[in-house]
């Protein structure tokens, strides 16, 4: 029990190091322009350039630069944005994080409930028109670019049909903190939740259906059937429970990726001031320190979340526990 | 399985029988037709712009006029909404000129849509092919040689896998867009289409390399590989003659799915203005152009979005059809 955990911990530390080195290399060691110019922003004064070069150690070897950057990001947390008049980057990310978390959690609830429903119904009606319709709907969901869907939904709910009874409740674009007004928070987020969930409903319902169909052909299902259990009970208690193992591990990964910035496009389209929109604004002002910080923090978050999910598996799933 | 009665005739190879079962799949055939139509239409973009619409979709035409029903009409029209000042571009005309209306710079949307299709399809297709080549190489090397090679490559893939795809692509794009790329004597300008192609191919390599590696590890223990090895066949020959043909079905099935993901990624990058650079068009940049006009001239953003949905959906259906036809199970699609 202890050894697998330790091994997993060692892997996590290694991947964390690897990721930080990779992100560092992307931003500061790609062939091309001087990294000083990238940090200092467009048309920086020579004094600023000199200051940046000193501060980030760009006149010193790469490992030293890497160490300085990690210290600024995670220990002193005083990485400052040059494009944005010395605004500290890390606190800015921390302020934006709850918005992203609200967006992703709500969407996750919708996509888990809907995709389990769709996947189970499709698997139960395998081969019928219901199955085909649901799976085609899932495929359409996967194929829609989320930012475009957001725009079209905005067009309908904010403009064309806003004055009808159907959408008159939709508030203007933007975010309302939960602490300020729970009801306003819900209303502001419910449409972004649905838009963000569409693609994942497609992916998850299709995966769940495929897994369920495969599992329903297995021996233990035949045993359950031979015992005379009802088809519903077999599908839900025996089939679905087994199929959910893959589902849950995929869910952990996607959830972490979305919180780590994968929801960027949804945040941009709906004007939600989360981590993704912060990255987007940094893109427009070419604010490299901010972009690097968001990428680094989200990558670290994804790795830690995955490690947590894996550790939970060690405790929950006897097959994984005893395999080591 | 060949029946005893026709053993004298060579049975159909895996590709021929896959093609036959694909030809029976009506949804897959329909999606091939849709794809072919969109590709041909995009290839005709210069012809359409010059001889049908009579406009240049890359030059701002704010002061221009067109003839509609014998009347000369301004491209930039007074706003419909009296509360708003300024001009808005002409909406869908229903004529050959400005069929879908104009964007905020007075350029013909239909013509830009066709030109944008060229870039979007070219980028996503090339990115998918490049990604398959890289993932195939990495997956075969890691799976076949095992040991240290496998460990290094797999750990590298793990690390790349942990960075959210779009953030990874955004980081690479912003760095190359600001200053271009200089590798030794070669300079790649920031507006070169190679940049988005390479970036998109690179970020999807871990997704495609994993199934390949798994397949190769299973193949390495297959009897015919052991037999070849015992006969003293050189390793490169085993890879080329025994491993590659058996992995090729996995790669072919992943092709359309990868192209679908690459197209979505390209449009997202272009929408964030770090993909295809102005004045060149792609479906993503046209959606970006339409963002400001979404309430007044929604067609500017809706049309390229529909094109993306049509192509991605067709590619996904084709990928599913290929998977069923070639009976490949481990090439699962993942976002």
UniProtKB/TrEMBL annotation, chain A:
Q: Which GO terms describe its biological process?
A: transmembrane transport
Compartmental location: Cell membrane
**Residue ranges of the ABC transmembrane type-1 domain?**
97-309
In its keyword annotation, does this UniProt entry include Cell membrane?
yes
Query: Which CDD domains does the UniProt record give?
Result: TM_PBP2
Q: How does it sit in the membrane?
A: Multi-pass membrane protein
Question: Which UniProt keywords are present, listed alphabetically?
Answer: Cell membrane, Membrane, Transmembrane, Transmembrane helix, Transport
Keyword match Transmembrane: yes
Residues crossing the lipid bilayer are: 12-30, 99-122, 134-156, 185-204, 243-270, 290-316
SUPFAM superfamilies per the record?
A: MetI-like
**Gene Ontology, cellular component aspect:** plasma membrane
What InterPro entries does this protein map onto? BPD_transp_1_N (IPR045621), MetI-like (IPR000515), MetI-like_sf (IPR035906)
Q: Chief location of this protein? A: membrane
Q: Which family does it belong to?
A: Belongs to the binding-protein-dependent transport system permease family.
What is the name of the protein in this document?
Peptide/nickel transport system permease protein
Origin species, per record, is: Acetobacter lovaniensis
TrEMBL record, chain B:
Q: List where the protein spans the membrane.
A: 27-49, 121-147, 159-181, 193-209, 243-263, 300-319
Keywords linked to the UniProt accession: Cell membrane, Membrane, Transmembrane, Transmembrane helix, Transport
Q: Which SUPFAM superfamilies match?
A: MetI-like
* Entry's Gene Ontology cellular component terms: plasma membrane
Q: Which domain of life is it from?
A: Bacteria
> What is the membrane topology here?
Multi-pass membrane protein
InterPro entries for this protein: BP-dependent_transpt_permease, MetI-like, MetI-like_sf, OppC_N
Tell whether Cell membrane is among the UniProt keywords. yes
Predominant location = membrane
One GO biological process this protein is involved in is: transmembrane transport
Q: Where in the cell is it found?
A: Cell membrane
Task: Indicate the segments forming the ABC transmembrane type-1 domain, all copies.
Answer: 117-319
| Keyword Thylakoid in record | no
**Family assignment?**
Belongs to the binding-protein-dependent transport system permease family.
Identification of the protein by name: Peptide/nickel transport system permease protein
